[in-house]
Design a protein that fits this description.
The protein is an alpha/beta fold. It is about 35% helix and about 30% strand. It has 13 helices and 13 strands. Strands 1, 2, 3, 4, 5, 6, 7, 8 and 9 form a nine-stranded mixed sheet that branches. The two termini are about 40 Å apart.
């Protein structure tokens, strides 16, 4: 299995190898810092904050092409105190500018992530675009401790895996500053990637598998991978990717979602017009264009119904952002509501009006006529 080295990691390696040529200053600067690749946040058994960081091992005396990292964990009464204690463990100042992610456990997510987000926003060294992922393991720390032969630096490798899934519209894109904006919006909800750890023989694979929904900064529920895909579609963010059913696979060439709000008899109807342009890329059997279109329509209605049922009945959060949409389109009425997020959701009806085009069959197995 090929090793994955991100651009950030490669840059650090280049700097380390050039250090002997450019004098001692660069070498000393690199080796005097604890360069943080990523972090994990948990609680210990006493409820104290447990902060784990992956620190890149940089040495001007090592010109090998493979980077390595070390894992450090500290415990404190708060995130700030735990971070201060890490300085003693690591033995040098922590440099957060290259940190790729923050993993959190479900215990932290249920208790609330406002402290973490505020810490990220206020700490100048941490980029506010750093993403937060929910770990689908008892502790987030476990993901750093497992064996990951596919990644030389786990944090960078996991970030690249998630980014690849985002490019295929299989994973939500929610940097911390956008998550904070969503949680402070009328809907008071935000969605982040859920990361699972899969054991395959002696190897461990980390990958996104669904999403975690937050309301008022606390974990409110989770969406599976299919619900996540249609959630992305509902937000108008299905830029590319593949739609798959039992017999056919389609590549998304373009997608456009618009939402119109209409009010009648005390109900607020949100009408989703979804226009998809698809290319057929795989077919297990022959079917006419009309038959395929009907299957796609049936599939969309089924999965949107599942998503909206989860929204209305299972997760107590306005993760579809209906209150935000209502505020934009019905601002005058919105200002009269005492609790916009609850009032809109309690009176909402969701309708979808899909328009599907199949543009090409040329790439498919068993070309359709």
């Amino acid at each position: 299995m090929n090793k994955r080295i991100s651009r950030g990691c490669a840059l650090l390696l280049i700097l380390a190898m050039l250090a002997p040529l450019s004098g001692c200053a660069v070498a000393d600067e690199l080796e005097s810092l604890g360069i943080v690749a990523g972090a994990a946040l948990d609680y210990d058994e006493q409820g104290n904050t447990m902060l784990t960081v992956e620190v890149i091992n940089v040495s001007s005396h090592d010109s090998s092409s493979s980077a390595t990292s070390s894992i450090f964990t500290s415990v404190g009464e708060s995130l700030a105190i735990a971070n201060e204690k890490l300085l003693t463990l690591v033995g040098r100042p922590l440099y957060w500018a290259h940190a790729a992610l923050f993993l959190i456990s479900r215990d932290v997510a249920r208790d609330g992530i406002e402290e973490l987000i505020q810490y990220i926003i206020r700490k100048d060294e941490i980029r506010i675009s750093i993403p937060i992922y929910l770990a689908d393991t008892p502790t987030a720390k476990e993901m750093f401790e497992a064996k990951h032969p596919a990644y030389t630096i786990l944090s960078f490798g996991l970030r690249d895996t998630v980014n690849a899934a985002k490019e295929e519209s299989m994973c939500v894109d929610m940097p911390t500053f956008e998550l904070y904006d969503e949680l402070c919006s009328p809907s008071k909800s935000g969605v982040i990637p859920l990361i699972e750890m899969v054991q395959i023989g002696d190897e461990t694979l980390l990958q996104p598998n669904g999403s975690a929904v937050f309301s008022d900064f606390k974990l409110a529920g989770e969406l599976d991978d299919k619900q996540t895909n249609y959630y992305i579609m509902s937000k108008g963010q299905l830029d590319q990717g593949v739609l798959i059913d039992t017999d056919f696979s389609y590549e998304v060439q373009s997608s456009k979602t618009t939402v119109k709000v209409e009010e009648s008899d005390g109900k607020i109807e949100f009408i989703y017009d979804i226009h998809l342009k698809l290319d057929l890329i795989h077919a297990r059997r022959q079917a006419s264009k009309e038959e395929q279109l009907q299957m796609i329509y049936d599939d969309m209605f089924k999965h949107f119904d599942d998503l909206t049922q989860t929204y209305f009945e299972e997760i107590d959060a306005d993760f579809m952002g209906l209150a935000n949409i209502y505020r934009v389109q019905k601002n005058k009425q919105y200002k009269l509501l005492e609790n916009p997020s609850k009032m809109v959701k309690d009176n909402a009806v969701v309708t979808i009006r899909p328009l599907i085009e199949i543009l090409s069959y040329g790439k498919a197995e068993g070309e359709q006529k």
